[in-house]
Amino acid sequence: MNRPTFSWINKKRRHPEFLVMTTLLLCLIGLLSAAGCLATSTSVETTQPIALTTSGAPALSSVLSEAGLSAARQYPGLTLMVKNTSSDQGIMDLVGEKATIALTNRTPTSREYAQARIQGKNLHLTLIGYDPLTVIVHPANPITSISKDDLARIFSNGTITEWNALDTGSAGPLHSYQDANETPDIQCLIQGITGVNCTHSTAISTVSAVRAVAADPDGIACIHGSALTPQVKSLTIEGNEGKGWVKTGTADPLYLITDGSPSPAVLQVISELFSGTSTATMKAEGLVPIE
């Protein structure tokens, strides 16, 4: 029995034009399949969960949390966990792969850089802002400004021991408290403002200094701006506007440190930190953002 249908197909298959068209059709199908796979793969990558963890100085904890939420809206799958520790611990956690970002109020030491290199880490610093020094008093104290010279006479040589010596309308004994500084070559924070080390004040922690002044109408202390609370009042220093001694060199730099250049997800967080909302939050918390 003749099979004309198969015979017709076989004749077509032997025709060169038919072979070319068939080959092109198969190639097109292959390309479309590959494109579909690529699109599916790209979609998965952009929605994969990305968990970032910060560890370090707590100065930026609230603004970082805020920036993380904003970044998540722009970067699907991103979450940011903020751990309040210290500059030392933050760098240790980054090197030990317990954190993806270290937050510090100083540059790493040569020893920390060396330890990072041993672990195959390359510490990359991004300057976010500054934590300025500020002088605080009790809210009931009528004083609103003070000079560097007077601060030196209070904290360094002890020649001012009474409030009436400042001619501010306040009277009574002056009690000076000094926030201890973790930087080895600066024994007290007030030295960053006056240039003279302090010898006539009670050295206590930041939290204790704030609490002491909040409870002592005759108290005065020098602290970092990030430690300000509504229970104390910040003074203007030598006519400087704003809350605190805002000047590079008399403020701690605030760094985000990563292993190598920041990843796209970390860059999104950094971008949010430089946004208007975050810089406003930083200023409200006594910090100086990079603008």
From TrEMBL:
It holds the Pfam family PBP_like_2. It comes from the Archaea. Residues 44-275 form the PBP domain. Keywords: Signal. InterPro entries: PBP_domain, Phosphate_ABC_transporter. Gene3D superfamilies: Periplasmic binding protein-like II. This is ABC-type phosphate transport system periplasmic component-like protein. It comes from Methanosphaerula palustris (strain ATCC BAA-1556 / DSM 19958 / E1-9c). The lineage of its organism: Archaea, Methanobacteriati, Methanobacteriota, Stenosarchaea group, Methanomicrobia.
